[in-house]
Amino acid sequence: MVSITIDGPAEDSGMSVESPNVSSDGNAGHGKFAEPVDSQPSNGGHDVKKDNTMSASVEEHGCLDSSHNLNEDHETWDPTSKEKPEPPHDSEESLNVPEGGYGWVIVLGSFIVHVLMGGLGRSDGLFFLMFRNRFDESATLTAWPLAVVSVLRLGMGPIASAICQRWSVRACCMIGGLLLGLSHILAGFSPNFPVLFASCGFLQGIGRGLLYGPSLILVNMYFDRRRSFATGVAASGVGVGTLLVVPLIQLFFDTFSFTGGFLVLGGVCFNAVLVAMMFRPLSMYYKFKGKKGYNLAVVWLHP
C-alpha cells in the first residue's frame, strides 16, 4: 500500500478533516472542542419564561388564598349576615317562654288594666251627660272629646310599640297610667270646654292607648301553649269592668259632685301605675333566674 502524507493546515488542502473530539469508536478526545456546541439557540429563554409563568401562577394562587382567608375572616363578623345568632345559653330550656310562674302575675295585671279600660269605655254615656250639664254645649260638640278618646286609644298602637321596643312594656304602661290619672284630675278643674277637650279628650286617649295594647303583648310573651287561655283571662276584665266600674263612677259623682268625682276617679286611675310595675320584662325575669345576657328577641321570635 502507498501512504500519502500531507503537510500544512487542513483548510489549505481543501479536504475535510474529522474532528478529533470524537473518534469512530465512540471515544471522546481531549482537545479544545471536547464538548459539542449546539448551533441551535438554547432553551434558556423558554425556561425563563416558564419560570416566570410558574412564579406568576404561584403568586396568583397565594393572592387567592389570602383573599379567601380575608373573606372567611370577614364572614365571621359580617353584620349583614342572614344567619341567626346562637342563643347565649346552652340549655334548651332557656329558649322556651316561662309558660306560667310569674306569667300569671302578668295576667293579673293585664286583667286589672282591662277592668279599668272596660269601665271607662262603658261610662261614656255618664260623661256625656255631665259635660252637657256642666258646660251647656251642643250635643255634637260635647261628643267630640269622647270620640277623640276612642280614636287615640286604638291609634296609639305604633307609638306604644316604639316605646316598648325602646324601653319596655313596663315603662310604656307606667306612662299611660300617669297620663290617664292626670287627665281626669285636669278634667275636674276645667274652667271651660276647650280645657276639658284637651284633658279628657287627648290626654285620656293617649293614656288608654299606652295601657291597652302593651298589657296584652306582655301576656303573649310569657305564654306559648297556654297563650289563648291566658289572653282570654286577661281580656275578660272588660266585662268585669262594665259590671263594676260603671256603677262605681256614678257613685263617685253622686257623692262628690263634678270636681270631687273626677278627683277620686283620677286617684283610681293612678293605680294603673302600680299595676304597670308588675309588668316585669322577660329580660329581667331571666336575669333574676341567673341567666344574664339573655336575648329577648330570641324569646319573642321563638315559635
UniProtKB/TrEMBL annotation:
Region Disordered, residue ranges: 1-96
Keywords: Membrane, Transmembrane, Transmembrane helix
Membrane disposition: Multi-pass membrane protein
Transmembrane segments: 101-121, 141-164, 171-189, 195-217, 229-253, 259-279
Organism encoding this protein: Elysia marginata
The UniProt record lists the keyword Nucleotide-binding: no
Subcellular location: Membrane
UniProt biased composition (Polar residues): 16-26
Alphabetized InterPro entries for the sequence: MFS, MFS_dom, MFS_trans_sf, Proton-linked_MCT
Record keyword Flavoprotein present: no
Protein name listed in UniProt: Monocarboxylate transporter
